[in-house]
């Protein structure tokens, strides 16, 4: 089948597990052509076996400019376009600032900030040539209100917040929307290290489905659900909630 018969083309980074995988899988159910980028592609291989016409995957480290450009070229070579990019790949180091090595914090920035910049730089010429597109940059409330023992990660998300708002203004004349995509706290493998109680986190499958429902949104801020929108508004207004809500577990 052609892309026009199956749907638009979406690229998701950090797509082999967690939110990225379930987002990508939900998009397949909705008829999209999807390409997953990750350093591990084992789950994506299985997904392609079940949906060979809709799924492509590329072993891609977003800290490697050549790998990113090669993967983007491969998607365009396969399907001719990229309509939506979801920058989701991320890492974090859990620990007090003075206990986390500078190299670890540098890696957080290389993946969580410069990884986003690399994929956007590779995709932008294609989106401009085709007359438009959507860039979703996954963010987090910690980029606005902070989080104990996640200072490096919070700093990367704060940088993405400012970068995305600026890029949105730059790209608007090109018909390219740039958004901040906000999932709720999610029970992923990495987030399990925070040891939050089960009632405070959402299942990755639920989050992926909700984000897939918003994949065509061009709003400046895109929330997975109304609870996430309300929760972020609340902690911005009452920052002390962050301290009270995290000191028991972190």
Automatic annotation (TrEMBL):
Recorded hits in PROSITE patterns, A to Z, give: ADH_SHORT (PS00061)
Specify one Pfam family: adh_short
What the entry lists under Gene3D superfamilies is as follows: NAD(P)-binding Rossmann-like Domain
Coiled-coil region list: none
Q: Does the keyword Oxidoreductase apply?
A: yes
Q: GO MF annotations for this entry? A: oxidoreductase activity
Ketoreductase domain: residues covered:
8-187
Matches recorded under InterPro entries: KR_dom, NAD(P)-bd_dom_sf, Sc_DH/Rdtase_CS, SDR_fam, SDR_oxidoreductase
> Which superkingdom?
Archaea
Q: Which UniProt keywords apply?
A: Oxidoreductase
**What family is this protein classified in?**
Belongs to the short-chain dehydrogenases/reductases (SDR) family.
This chain's protein is named: SDR family NAD(P)-dependent oxidoreductase
- Please report the organism this UniProt entry assigns to the protein: Halomarina oriensis
